[in-house]
Amino acid sequence: QVQLVESGGGLVQAGGSLRLSCAASRLTYGAWHMGWFRQAPGKEREFVARINIGWENALTVYADSAKGRFTISRDSAKNTVYLQMNSLKPEDTAVYYCAAARGRFTTIHSVDSWGQGTQVTVSA
Q1: Residue 55: pLDDT band by 50, 70, 90 thresholds?
Q2: CA distance linking residue 78 with residue 95, whole number of Å
Q3: Exposure string for 35-68, b = 16+ CB within 10 A, e = fewer
Q4: Closest by Cα among 2, 20, 15 to 71
Q5: Across the chain, what does the average pLDDT equal?
Q6: Which residue, among 12, 21, 6, has the nearest Cα to 72 in the 3D structure?
Q7: Are 38 and 122 in contact (CB under 8 A)?
Q8: In whole angstroms, what is the distance from residue 70 CA to residue 88 CA?
């Protein structure tokens, strides 16, 4: 099965930036999508962003909360995706999970594989 490993989480003050990475292994031939969800304590896991893997042309999709502040990118040769997070706010505090699927996803029900999660904490 697909294995995902996240890194890059940490502590940052409001207005700061973080860059998350997710490396995938055991991807089989064909179309894949990778991206990010986040889950704050006591809240549902919510979609953040996704990008296609393995194609010449990139397609990105963002949640409204991420538009204008976050940027998802890829290195398809390494099966790796990144999430550059700028202008961070305390409400961005959550565990961020890398996700992968054969199809496009916006909800957790469409995700095939999950990473272990990385903590992002934004102090006021």
Answers
A1: confident
A2: 24
A3: bbbbeeeeeebbbbbbbbbeeeeeeebbbebbee
A4: 20
A5: 94
A6: 21
A7: no
A8: 9
Q: What CA–CA distance (Å, rounded) separates 50 from 83?
A: 10
Give the model's pLDDT for residue 69.
97
Spatial distance between the Cα atoms of 123 and 5, rounded to a whole number of angstroms: 25
Tokens of 3: 């294995």
Scan for tokens 């010449």, then name that residue: 56
Q: What is the pLDDT of residues 18-31, one digit of tens each?
A: 999 999 998 777 78
Q: What is the pLDDT of residues 65-100, one digit of tens each?
A: 999 999 999 998 888 999 999 999 999 999 999 999
Cβ contact 50:34 at 8 Å: yes
